[in-house]
Amino acid sequence: MDKINLGSTIPAYPMPVSIVGTIVNGKANFMAVAWFTMVSYKPPRIAIALGKGHFTNPGIKENKTFSISLPSEDMVEITDFCGIVTGKKTDKSEIFDVFYGELETAPLIKECPLSMECKLVDTVVSGLNEIFIGEIVGTYTEERFLTDGKLDVGKMKPFLLSQPDTAYWGLGEPIAKAWSIGKKFKERLK
Amino acid sequence: MDKINLGSTIPAYPMPVSIVGTIVNGKANFMAVAWFTMVSYKPPRIAIALGKGHFTNPGIKENKTFSISLPSEDMVEITDFCGIVTGKKTDKSEIFDVFYGELETAPLIKECPLSMECKLVDTVVSGLNEIFIGEIVGTYTEERFLTDGKLDVGKMKPFLLSQPDTAYWGLGEPIAKAWSIGKKFKERLK
Fold first, then answer.
1. What interface predicted TM-score (ipTM) does this complex get?
2. Quick one: residue A144, left, alpha or beta (phi over 0 = left, psi -120 to 50 = alpha)?
3. Cβ separation of A185 and B13 shorter than 8 Å?
4. d(CA A17, CA A87)
5. Which of A14, A128, A147 is nearest residue B160 as measured by Cβ atoms?
6. How many CB atoms lie within 10 A of CB B170?
């Protein structure tokens, strides 16, 4: 089990893929983003990390809102398109069926099983990136993605990106119950 | 396609699962963390969002270092254990085979296919959480997880957590090439 040190580099791991929606110059724009995470439980807040030069950033700063939608596997082509084509050159305002929730400047995507509208609460600069922290004010889905009233990831069919090898991955099968399977290890430790 | 608004809530999506390593009170401690994301490409930086009350946080603040390791599917029990048992009550310093890289206070896990050692560069408070931004100074793996010299997610077999339904998921199959499949959509748009 000899370890190799690859040095100071971008690691490989599966990152869920999202589409961030903003209004830029009066029009909806969409960008594929895999660098995001929940950062607060109460109130629910989510952070996205974007390179400073993106077309999206000024829209977030101006309107202090953005949306984050989780596409399903069958949307892999259009999602990747949102990642490789910049809003600076291509109008992406009509590629999705757009709707709005409470916020007037956070365009949500009807085709996505899950869309969140966010109010910007903080901006943090790190290296060449801007981290936008948004408070989730609305969470939109459809009945068909729920099981017993809860969002069901298995029905949503999200997909994931690994970066150095630039591959999209489907989600596999449930393998264990969280906050539960670890009890077996705990028992053995006694 | 009627949308339902679940309100201001924690969304469901698959989050890669990591184990964060720190030195607390002179001993290695490990905590399961799914709230993390890359935030900077150059230099490579990764952010983790932890509830303020965790045993881990003072260790990060004191040493200004932490590690983040990606466990494989066969480590789901011990990883969940690290999530449900606090270092305040249980000494977790000997549950893994620990090694160190450049940093003396970022314990790395031999059993994990990928371990990164990080230097703390920024701390951001958001709600009841602290976001620790770390610069990746070393990235440890083994030859058997590489393909053509690059980390191969398929060989690493990481797993994912979805939160409201508290399930762990395996990774599925590669479904498309990233920064590539979207060109098909672009062609059709012309």
1. 0.96
2. alpha
3. no
4. 19
5. A14
6. 16
